[in-house]
Amino acid sequence: MDMDYLVRFAQIHESFRIPELQALADLFGIDVAFADYSQYSPHCVVRLRDRDAARNLISRSILTQGIYELWGTGSTYDELHADTRRRTSNLWQNYKSASFKFEVQAFMATRSLSEQNDLITSFSYLGFKGPIKLRNPEQTFCVFEDWDWGGSAPKKIYFGRFVGGSSRSILDTYTLKKRKYLSTTSMDSELALITANLTHAAPGRLFHDPFVGTGSFLVACAHFGACTMGSDIDGRAVRGKNGRNIFTNFGQYDLVGGYLDMFVADLTHAPLRGSRFLDGIICDPPYGVREGLKVLGSRDGGSKEVKYIDGEPAHLQDHYLPPKKPYGFEAMLNDILDFAAETLVESGRLSLWMPTANDEGAGDLEIPKHACLEMTSVCVQAFNKWSRRLLTYQKLRGDGVKDQTHQPISQSSNSVAASTTANELNAFRKRPVYPDFGPISGANGDPGAPHKDPRGPFHSPPQRKQIADAGRPWVVCIQSAIRGKDDERSQSKAMPSWAGRRHYWGAMERTA
Q1: Which residue spans within 358-486 are E strands per DSSP?
Q2: Separation CA 216–CA 237 (nearest Å)
Q3: Of 39, 42, 415, 441, whose CB is crowded by the most CB atoms within 10 A?
Q4: Mean pLDDT of the region 307-317
Q5: What's the pLDDT at 510?
Q6: What is the spatial distance between Cα 87 and Cα 73, in angstroms, rounded to a whole number?
Q7: Which burial class, exposed, middle or buried, applies to 393 when counting CB atoms under 10 A from its CB (0-12, 13-18, 19+)?
Q8: Predicted confidence (pLDDT) per residue in 166-186, tens digit
């Protein structure tokens, strides 16, 4: 008979929590129903067949703290006690003589020790006679309170018996602060482990990262028992530096058994057989924001004459850097999906990260689709000006395809014109262009030319008034504290930043 269980989430990465649990349920073949959940609360009620299913579901989760057998719930303590008697009165005898402890956890509120003792005492009707042990008790019971911020009473109360813990404690082991080989682009260990869960990393499975970098994803997959291999267009990342490389990280965590090999290649020139042999592909491709994306090849597409250094072909030497050409992010997404469709086994999974702009009109990207891949989840990690999405796909079984046509969202990497630049290929790098308001008067009231700035105009306080009188949106700028002198120094003082100017323009245009 199915029973309700309470999952206690960590209050972080809210859009990842349900997809991670669903992915683990699919991995272990567990039927799970989400009966009560809100992203604004760390409490989730799920329906499972038995306690073993509950333990297995939560055992390798990263975003949960534990799972509890739900004994009662209510909006008040009177409702909670009545529901506890109705649900579990037949179970009390099973724990009458066992050692136990009680805990009280309040979300968005605090309870004093005296208040906690009063709440615990209100459950005396359970009739437990065993010894109270605060360390390593046989049974742990917990009261969970869900409050609104500043509320006078909890809006929801849960009471449950602890059934099993999660793997969240491993975050301290894999933290990047202790990792021996990393770079500025190494994926956060928590997100790497979550991505490995979503991609179904498990013993006996082969995983590949085509943008391996310092191997954060592959370390996470190896932790869950998968065999891993990776590649990167940057040979320096694969070879490492100062005697440290990706293999060093595997040795640090005693995961050498999960390390197969790493090699230098880009996605479009991978020396891998064209057959279905991968159980999972997991990657965080470069976004092309800070610098343009590159792929192996020449701009004109022609072959180059072999160059020799000390009588040996240059391309066969260890420090050879092959020629590269611009590569579009949208083209790369198409190539990743094509690569996954060709190499994943049936029900194999692909997880990839991609950026998305928070500002309207800032070059947002569509979520790519493929006829042989079914999307299982989309998770979002929000930042200030932009966000990034974790997309997870599953290879369809047999020869069946989704009722959709695979239409590339940009040109292929093999059809890039010789004159094409990185900015032209990557729309996400483009910033909105704001209009110039034309000539305006100088700071002393005399007609003058506007301040020149390639990213927009700059106006002093007297000029703002003139623009406002003309019915135009105006810009708030930073002005020198020195007043009364209209000299070159005061006019050139403190040019506002690009981000600040965009913020004020948007604010004033909305109120204009």
Answers
A1: 373-382, 386-395, 440-441, 447-448
A2: 12
A3: 42
A4: 79
A5: 40
A6: 10
A7: buried
A8: 999 999 999 999 999 999 889
Give tens-digit pLDDT for 96-111.
999 999 999 999 999 9
Phi, psi (deg, nearest 5) at residue 217: -65, -40
Q: Is 357 helix (H, G, I), strand (E, B) or coil?
A: strand
Give the model's pLDDT for residue 173.
97
Tell me how many degrees the CA angle 405-408-409 measures, rounded to the nearest 5.
120
Exposed/middle/buried for residue 510 (C-beta within 10 Å: 0-12, 13-18, 19+): exposed
**Three-point CA angle 366, 395, 196, nearest 5°:** 80
Cα–Cα distance, 259 to 194 (Å, whole number):
20
Name, in order, each residue with C-beta under 8 angstroms of 205's C-beta and a sequence gap of 6 or more. Answer: 225, 226, 227, 279, 280
**Cα(408)–Cα(369) distance, integer angstroms:** 8
Residue 424 binned pLDDT confidence (cut-offs 50, 70, 90): low
Helix/strand/coil percent split, the chain, to 5: 30, 25, 45
Look at the alpha carbons of 439, 445, 447, 452 in this order and tell me if their dihedral is positive or negative.
negative
pLDDT band at 290 (very low <50, low <70, confident <90, very high): low
Average predicted confidence (pLDDT) for the chain: 81
Computed from CA positions of residues 158, 163, 167, 169, in that sequence, does the dihedral angle turn out positive or negative? Answer: positive
Longest CA–CA span in the chain (Å) reads 92
Q: Which of 137, 5, 22, 23 is nearest to 72 (CA)?
A: 5
How far from the centroid of its chain's Cα atoms is residue 253's Cα? 23
Threshold 0.85, pTM exceeds: no
Name the band, by pLDDT with cuts 50, 70 and 90, for residue 302: low
Contact criterion met (CB below 8 Å) for 35 and 45: yes
CB atoms within 10 A of CB 383: 9
Query: Other C-beta atoms within 10 Å of 1: how many?
Result: 4
The pairing of beta strand 227-232 with beta strand 206-209: parallel
